[in-house]
């Protein structure tokens, strides 16, 4: 890797360490796992819903078949998920830097553990507990993920799931309509086949010290199957659903409810370099006030200009990965992970959707514990820009919870401060 690529990233890319919050007149007082009931401005909610209806993807992509015929469900594409399970060489590398590292029994297994009451180091690293102490934890904000599913019954996630409608005698009750959709298998309830989606949702909104914005509610769409494959029409439908969700059984999206769309969307995948296929869709998100956060990719070892779309679209927060550096086992600060893709982006000169400045910032992405997809009480560790991305989505949720009137540009600029 050239010194130009690594040093430029380190010197000029913000590392997510704090939230410039301030304090609104209406604030909250809650611990990291609490959720605060606040008054809802129904007029403002209706205004947002109407704006979303006016900008539905059906209208924005009305000429889809003419302009990007190869994407509109006619053939399939395979996005890339940017992660690796924490095992083998990755754990070996970390064990040389920290005596607290765990080892893995095989190169194909994931590191797992039992949840503790302590805040995870990566969550403390971005100073999320400081925001919680001020009374801001994402309450009132909906964070969506488009990924491979979520284990919604996990103890760190179940209370934050918007489909959790009540509980009695220790048993939860659920309503998955408008809160979950599965394009891969058409399952009527949230499910995860490989752990990636559960991990990233947990880092964004999980409780028990695993997530940045535990007061936020979450919804999710499954666009990846167990093999990590996603068809083009699944992606397009998922992007539209995140803006205007539907009932689980509404396979034709005939009755969307745009008032229930996500406020922040965390996407730990990409579709290619300088690829404009999703540009109109993501523009519809930002026009309707939704904050898009995308991983930039894990090809940093190949040098500069290795980022992926849509992280390089204008209006998108493109996220790289950082890790804590040690010298003689002493924490000496953060640096960009060697695997994290680098900018400047390969800009498509024929399309105005692109920005060459990626990543927008970096966040913890090395050895990140999140809820396990195999148990309701355990954790599972992953590494990648996939894991960095939900830290930023959680930060955006905290900012919107503190200042609901912020625009997409406002949220971005405050995170970059």
Please give a quick description of this structure:
The chain has 417 residues and is of the alpha/beta class. 26% of the residues lie in helices and 18% in strands. Strands 4, 7, 8, 9, 11, 12, 13 and 14 form an eight-stranded mixed beta sheet that branches. Strands 2, 3, 15 and 16 form a four-stranded antiparallel beta sheet that branches.
Describe the protein in words:
- This protein is α/β, with parallel strands linked by helices and 417 residues long.
- It has 12 helices and 16 strands.
- The strands form 4 sheets. Strands 4, 7, 8, 9, 11, 12, 13 and 14 form an 8-stranded mixed beta sheet that branches.
- The protein is globular and about 50 Å long.
